[in-house]
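Morning run. Coffee first, then this:
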Amino acid sequence: MGFKEAATKTSINTALSYINGNPQKNLPRLMSFINTVMRNDTSFPGPRAAITRVVNDPDNNLNQLLCSVFDDVDLEVIKKAFTNFVVNANFIGWEKQQKVREEYGCNVPWTILMDPTSACNLHCTGCWAAEYGNKLNLSLEELDDIIRQGKDMGVYFYIYTGGEPLVRKKDLMELCRRHNDCVFMSFTNGTLIDEQFAQDMLEVKNFFPVISVEGLEDATDFRRGEGVYGKVLKAMDILHKHKLPIGISCCYTSKNIPSIVSDEFIDEMISRGVKYAWFFHYMPVGNDAAVELLPSPEQREFMYHRIREIRENKQIWPMDFQNDGEYLQGCIAGGRRYFHINANGDMDPCVFIHYSDSNIREKTILEGLCSPMLMQYKEHQPFNGNHLRPCPMLENPHAIGEMVHASGAHSTDLESPESVEHLVEKTEEYAKNWKPEAERLWKISHHTPYKETHEYIMSREEYEKTIVPKLNRKIHEYDAGSDSRPSVK
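And here it is:
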């Protein structure tokens, strides 16, 4: 570790200890100091200004969220998260990544998703993972090697998917110990979290679970099995008691909107100590995918507005993997910000797109990033100028077909391989129906048309007068027990 890096980490730990005594009072002081030190520095002026506004407003929901983190999460865990995530995964890691990008002309990810196992103790409706059973596994040494290769390229952030990753609890904790400079996040159904695992998490300090829920009890148990919601709440209570951070993962479908973003559900999660939430649009992956679960354009627009409302009013930070594409300049898969390694070792461009031409047992990670399939992604991203239509499968289905054929990639579904033509057929109608809604929303958000068009552009003032009241009314209707279809059109 260099002197500058060590000094930075020491400064962060000192600052966090200082904040911890009285976060509402000391956060503004710390930001004032940072702004003074960086007054001649042009780095990140927008984010610094936004954070300054938040920490100086005690009534701001994000100010309250930040303060709650210091109240609810172990200080040593907070320090480890800041050091590994802010310093290693961003400042140090980004510089390394950029050198590799320039040298090899390929995408280099910010995070790598990987499936330790195909095994799962549940059988959720619409999920492809349970089809495999305990057939496929990445060994401990293979997982370790992926991380070592990643760190050589500047990747310090790793996300476990599955299968149910916690089937491999012992190995995951061992990897946390071996790579104490990394951040590990795991999507999990939560049912395998117990007192001992919470103690293990407190020991390593760099493992962060994201628990899958589909809404309240009826919705979660309908998709995941009877009694699962109760087990999820028990897991949250264990984590909260041990002052460990809690995130949730929510898949929204045509059947659980708007319940999955209702005040009742969000407030229940906040009361359980949840600090952040990933919202995922249902993806019709696999030959037996339930296409009827795809949200309608009206439902997706509802989610677009509702997630933003939650961010502005609730003490939780929600992220919408599909509708937040405008903040990330479109699709982030294919190695641009992440790629996925399944339990068979195949390097997929995305956790939702199961086509590959590379396997870690035959190629290095860098060779895979330079492979035809992932280079196809690099050459075509973004897939159009409207980042509310980011995905090459869901909103630009012609793109995934062209890339698979151009690269010679094959389906990585070993149980029931799906042709790319079959996948495209399922999303063409969806893409067609969502496009005009996405163009209208883009014009509202950016005050500029997408492509050349003379369609009417709604002003921000008109948006506040027409769209927002309808959104608020629909949420209140749901919370009051209304069964009406969600729409903000």
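Residues 126 and 289 are 6 Å apart (CA to CA). Good start to the day.
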